[in-house]
């Protein structure tokens, strides 16, 4: 039989096989309550990557690592001189993460490669399935590091020098796990990049849509805040004499939360993921508190205003409490629009499957945001139960995963086979 | 020469020798910035106790340990059948503690024994200088444990089973350090107990008084608070869908602080010494926050009211944020009045040295509070710089230390020699 090569060919992916590979991957680095724990470049993350490589190598694909440990899985096209159509996501997880965040995008890609392989279909352009390094940022800050250095959005020195809580540098973790390759950063250059991902929010579940086309990603700003006061004994020190950094933090955070909740768009987000008291002791006023702030919005101008408010609120709380506050903006990711042609290609693919999909902005940062600066990029979301992710309870319905992989497959084939 | 034995004898203590012994003790377990770190029953605490035992044994005193590791240093009286007059404090410190908290009371006692020894003065009643175990409670909760079980104010099982952060039980730490003695708890029975201590607050420094007579100790309540919400991704989860335990904690703490600061007496105190986020990650809404609350007042009725407010404030904040809150009262120490005769004895001793001392309530808990339930008890305070304690910067002027030891000595001799 001649390989089928026309652009109109429709390939049906195997939703059950996709689900089995998701469950198989979840068994690598299982967390206590049914989630996964594969922090970037740990033993568990590497075990996940090795399993994945066995799967794609069985399809005759070629694996290459770039200098940041990003893994590119190439399925050759009929015209090897053309830039490849890429798709993928990440396999690393949060400390108590779920089975779908990132993993779905990678294994949907695997399912597409398997479906093409078993039907012996070859696309005009080459395909590249990408596994980005350290997307979560839980072990090494900042997040989306691998795609960041690939796209020139993150300084390579900041990437390689990042240290985990044990003082291990990312560069050393890459070497130790043999994940540092020789493909130069920024290569291969991509014709397009598609990323399928769980929504990580409640919108699709609430609207009842099985998928959503993502038109862009909200802006994200990360801050490190240090509040320094005066340690003193809990009993004899009158409230009026205290310089309590923890109550100052509480005061400032409540004020910032009120600002964020008052945002009329409903699109502002405030998260304090870390808060640490130095030398905690129950009958001692702490000397110092360190905390992180994650601030997001779909509108950069509004985000500027909220950031200015954040500084004012913390300064006011610190001033009132007689403590000092030091705020460092660690990271800034602007609002990012995705590629109109690729957005249209997902709409078309969905329509041909009888679906009309809503357009939405992503609330989470994704590797796709970085890649969008160097290649036309789009994302496709599946609903996730109760909008919960970064959590062991994270769940996506098998039929939504399958449908996402199918629409992704259709759009990728159309892109890769276009004249 | 016949020993001098009349009740009217005045003994002058040696302030410089007292200061030297304070500085020598501070050199055991020194902390980075000039304070001390001798957590209860650690190597450093034991080293401090051994140094102290060498000093008192050189004076011919006999050391005995009770079952809780409380160290009783006996200087025999002329009538060995009489209950002893006791004085002392503790040698253990906070993680980053000062050179005076507790240590001053013990080493002022040493200085009194040395002064009596060099003048060969023998009191009618025996004297007992006491070093209580685990006063600070930083390593093993609750605080004032040794005096607590001595006075029957703390269950022995709660004392012995207390675990430190590494899971080491206090009972095992006592055995391992050979500090568990055979003197039954509650013995010896005391005729009186005096405790000299730094104020750990700013009142004496502000009034300019060199000492203060303590008429009682404020009530203290300790709470463990667990706030449980729902972990989720920082980006896509709208504020209205969140169940964020950290922002709920901030909200509740600000409300409680406002209640405490609004107390018209100015005698209410609120301290959050520990606050911990489980599985912290900067782009994840935390699932759970645990924190401690230390609430104090000089009036038990008012403290009851504040405690009721505390429950209401946390419940309201939790309800508003859609999280659950669990509050456990770990410890309750009622307002404790000291012995009127002993208060008068300090007033007399001070007057005979030309001083008129203010009366004050203690803001901190002390071993004296426990002992006051089984023996007439009083405390004497020295000022401390800026009211700061539980801090490496803690400082008491040498002349205040000396004057405190002197007034203490005079009152002890009067008590021990009374008919």
**CATH superfamily of the largest domain in chain A, called what?**
Zn peptidases
Q: How many strands in all of chain A? A: 16
What is the count of structural domains of chain A? Answer: 2
Q: CATH class of the largest domain in chain A, anyone?
A: Alpha Beta
**How does the helix and strand content of chain A classify structurally?**
alpha+beta
The gyration radius over C-alpha positions of chain A equals 23 Å
InterPro entries (chains A, B): Amidase_Cbmase (IPR010158), Bact_exopeptidase_dim_dom (IPR036264), Peptidase_M20 (IPR002933), Peptidase_M20_dimer (IPR011650)
Protein name (chains A, B): M20 family metallo-hydrolase
Binding site for Zn(2+) 1 (chains A, B): 90, 101, 197
Domain Peptidase M20 dimerisation (chains A, B): 216-319
Structure description:
Two copies of one chain form a homodimer. Chain A has twelve helices and 16 strands. The first copy, chain A, folds into two domains: 15-218 and 335-417, Zn peptidases (Aminopeptidase, 3-Layer(aba) Sandwich), CATH 3.40.630.10; 219-333, Alpha-Beta Plaits (2-Layer Sandwich). In chain A, strand 3 (85-89), helix 3 (103-118) and strand 4 form a beta-alpha-beta unit. The first copy, chain A, is elongated. Chain A is 34% helix and 20% strand. The first copy, chain A, is an alpha+beta fold and 419 residues long. In chain A, helix 1 (15-26) packs across helix 3 and helix 3 (103-118) crosses helix 12 (398-417). In chain A, strands 1, 2, 3, 4, 5, 6, 14, 15 and 16 form a nine-stranded mixed β-sheet that branches. In chain A, strands 7, 9, 10, 12 and 13 form a five-stranded antiparallel β-sheet that branches.
